From TrEMBL:
InterPro entries: DEAD/DEAH_box_helicase_dom (IPR011545), Helicase_ATP-bd (IPR014001), Meiotic_Crossover_Helicase (IPR052247), P-loop_NTPase (IPR027417). One of its GO terms (molecular function) is hydrolase activity. This is Helicase ATP-binding domain-containing protein. Residues 36-233 form the Helicase ATP-binding domain. Pfam families: DEAD. Signal peptide: none annotated.
Length: 236
């Protein structure tokens, strides 16, 4: 897909306080094509696009869409810590640690003041209560599955009720042997979103965003994950 620069969405289309998240002036073709779905909508989204096409930027636009709820009419950012949680799920610790460094710089104390926390097997000392004030939780499917199952088994929602956005990287792993844990957490989030006692919580309106470079059955995945699909995009 070839875009002229006139067709590309400028970063200046975002509120000024969010523009510093990006180090470039224009979103690329994939990001521009998905801009309305990612930033101007709360719809669930599945995107299949090649490696290096800017899928992380789509995640960041979805994060900013959520954070835009906290902007005042004057453009000031009022951030109650941990009130709107984002969960990023990826298959490897290396990918998670890379995103922690990247997003701590982009969204952390030197910019928007969000707290990013890695939750993997490398930091077993983290307790559920430690996640109450966390804004972006970065975790593996297996670790997040066990953590959220503990909340449910103990008869309380804990931090889970504050989850407003679930970002799934490399979603094609649903077809892998490790796909069971990923399927379990998506199903659990959907189930909790329907709980009457959580109808006033963020999770009742949770948004799912999934990306991959290789999703052969993207329409089927969108039908299951998004139920019904809101936006399914494939870029070759």
């Amino acid at each position: 897909m070839n875009f002229h620069q006139d067709s590309l969405v400028p970063v200046s289309a975002l509120p000024q306080i969010f523009q510093g998240v990006f180090s470039f002036r224009f979103f690329n073709s994939v990001q521009s094509e998905c801009f309305s779905s990612a930033y101007l909508s709360d719809d669930n989204l599945v995107v299949s696009a090649p490696t290096g096409s800017g899928k992380t930027g789509l995640f960041e636009l979805c994060i900013l869409r959520l954070l835009s709820r906290l902007l005042s009419p004057e453009g000031l950012f009022n951030h109650p810590r941990g009130a709107l949680k984002i969960v990023y799920v990826a298959p490897t610790k290396a990918l998670i640690q890379e995103k922690v460094r990247e997003w701590d710089e982009k969204f952390g104390s030197r910019s928007l003041g969000l707290i990013c926390r890695e939750v993997t097997g490398d930091n077993e000392s983290i307790q559920v209560k430690d996640l109450q004030d966390t804004d972006i939780i970065l975790t593996t499917p297996e670790k997040f599955d066990s953590t959220t199952r503990r909340c449910r088994d103990h008869g309380r929602a804990g931090f889970v009720g504050d989850i407003a956005l679930l970002l799934i990287d490399e979603v094609h792993l649903l077809n892998d042997t490790r796909g069971a844990a990923l399927e379990a957490i998506v199903s659990r989030m959907k189930m909790l979103a329907r709980y009457p006692e959580l109808k006033e919580s963020c999770i009742s309106r949770i948004r799912f965003v999934a990306v991959s470079a290789t999703i052969p059955n993207i329409e089927d995945l969108g039908e299951w994950l998004l139920a019904p699909p809101r936006a399914v995009k494939r870029f070759c």
